[in-house]
Specification:
- The structure is a single chain.
- With 185 residues, the chain is an alpha/beta fold.
- It has a single domain, classed as Vaccinia Virus protein VP39 (Rossmann fold, 3-Layer(aba) Sandwich).
- 37% of the residues lie in helices and 22% in strands.
- It is built from 7 helices and 7 strands; from the N terminus they run αβαβααβαβαβαββ.
- α1 packs parallel to α2 and α6 packs parallel to α7.
- The termini are far apart.
């Protein structure tokens, strides 16, 4: 497996995302918003190929990366993030699995039909107002029984506040103390 930089932790991937791929029977729709350089989506795409299951895997980002930490941008500041992303999905041989959409997450929600998404992973902007609007924009698109996942739960008060207001006591967190949350719809 070719390693591509990712800001998504193994706990999130191993407890939520990869198990969703393993449960898939074909025909599912998975969406990741905020893919950065593609490290996480490449790993999910590789798992899909390994399992041989037909999942539509969408990668949504503006590839501006103005909400990425200085540590995350180290060594690539000022480069074309979209170009790096495309190179990475080609290096990982998942270009036939990943469907990139260059759009803001909230606007991209309008591109999907109601109740069409099985798994949604939110990791774009981390401010309270944005996350609140993002959740509200994507919720109608989620299938009953689908899973909405979000990253950086324990490290962002804005995310925690928006998630609590939208989901109350339905929130589950990863075993590492909450690097990510997930909610079954």
């Amino acid at each position: 497996m070719i390693e591509v930089p990712t800001l998504v932790d193994d706990c999130t991937r191993n407890e939520i995302l990869i198990p969703a791929v393993k449960r898939a029977i074909g025909g599912e729709v998975f969406v990741e918003c905020g893919v950065w350089l593609g490290g996480n989506i490449c790993r999910i795409g590789q798992a899909i190929k390994e399992m041989g299951v037909a999942i539509d895997l969408y990668a949504i980002d503006m590839w501006i990366c103005d909400d990425i930490s200085a540590q995350g941008k180290a060594g690539i500041e000022g480069q074309d993030y979209h170009k790096i992303f495309m190179e990475n999905i080609n290096k990982c041989d998942v270009q036939d699995v990943v469907i990139p959409i260059r759009e803001d997450s909230i606007k991209a929600a309008q591109l999907f039909k109601d109740q069409s998404i099985d798994l949604l992973f939110l990791d774009s902007c981390h401010s309270y107002p944005y996350v609140d609007l993002e959740i509200k924009a994507w919720l109608p698109n989620m299938k009953k029984g689908g899973i909405l996942v979000g990253h950086d739960y324990k490290s962002s008060e804005g995310i925690r506040m928006a998630v609590r207001e939208n989901f109350g006591d339905k929130i589950n967190v990863t075993s590492d103390g909450g690097s990510s949350y997930w909610v079954k719809i």
